[in-house]
C-alpha cells in the first residue's frame, strides 16, 4: 500500500514538472479578484477616469483573472468611458494629435503575478470605444512588432495584499532622438495603432506622451 502511494506521489510530481509552470506562477490569483479602480487624475495626466469603477456595478469589469496570465482586466461597461487626450502629446516625428478619444478600459498583462511589496513593469493596452484606435504601452513577450517595442511599459507597485498602483514609468530618456529633435523623456511613451479598411488592417500612427495613474483595490464583499 505504501509503495502504491509513493508511486502516485512521484507521478504527480512528474506531471506538474511537465506543465512547465514557473515559480512566479504561484503568485497568481486562485480565483478572480474583484477590484475597484480609481484614477488619480493628476495635473498633466492624459488618461483620465470618471470617479470609481467597481467590478459588477454598471456592468463594469475590474478584476484579476484566474488563469495563469494574471491579467488585470478593466472594462467600463455602462459607466462613463475613460478619456485620452492627444493634443500636444506627440513625440517628434509623430503626427500631432487633436482633441481626444474615449476608451473602453485598460488591460495590464500579467500584473497579477507580482508578489506583494514588489514593483514591476508590464505591457498594457487600451482600445477606443469605436474600436479604431489602440493605445499600447510596451509589447507582450510573444509580440515581435518593432513599433510597439519603442513604447514603454507601465509600472505596477503591489503595495499590499489589497492594493496595486498602476502608473507610467518616469525618468527614461530617449537617447536617439530623430534629427532636429531634442532628447525627450520617454517613460510615458505610448504607441498608437489604427485599425481600418476592409479587410481590417492595423498600422502604427505614432508615439504620444500619455501619463496616467490609477489605484486598484480589492473590492470588499
- Portion in helices: under 10%
Q: Return the string of H and E elements.
A: HEEEEEEEEEEEHEEEEE
How many β-strands, per DSSP?
A: 16
Tally of individual helices: 2
Shape: globular
Structural class: mainly beta
Main β-sheet: number of strands, strand sense, barrel status?
13 strands, antiparallel
Radius of gyration: 20 Å
What fraction strand? 35-45%
pLDDT < 50 stretches: 1-26
Count of domains: 1
The mean pLDDT is 82
The separation of the N and C termini measures 46 Å
Could you explain how this protein is built, in words?
By secondary structure, the chain is mainly beta. The chain has one domain. It contains 2 helices and 16 strands. A hairpin with a 2-residue loop joins strand 12 and strand 13. The N and C termini lie far apart (46 Å).
Question: In brief, what are we looking at here?
Answer:
The protein is mainly β and 221 residues long. It has helices at residues 2-18, 146-149; strands spanning 33-39, 47-48, 52-54, 61-64, 72-75, 82-85, 100-103, 105-108, 119-122, 124-127, 133-137, 154-160, 163-168, 189-196, 201-209, 213-218.
Question: Would you spell out the secondary-structure blueprint of this structure?
Answer:
Elements: H1 2-18, E1 33-39, E2 47-48, E3 52-54, E4 61-64, E5 72-75, E6 82-85, E7 100-103, E8 105-108, E9 119-122, E10 124-127, E11 133-137, H2 146-149, E12 154-160, E13 163-168, E14 189-196, E15 201-209, E16 213-218
Antiparallel strand pairs: 1-3, 1-4, 1-16, 2-6, 4-5, 5-8, 6-7, 8-10, 9-12, 10-11, 11-14, 12-13, 13-16, 14-15
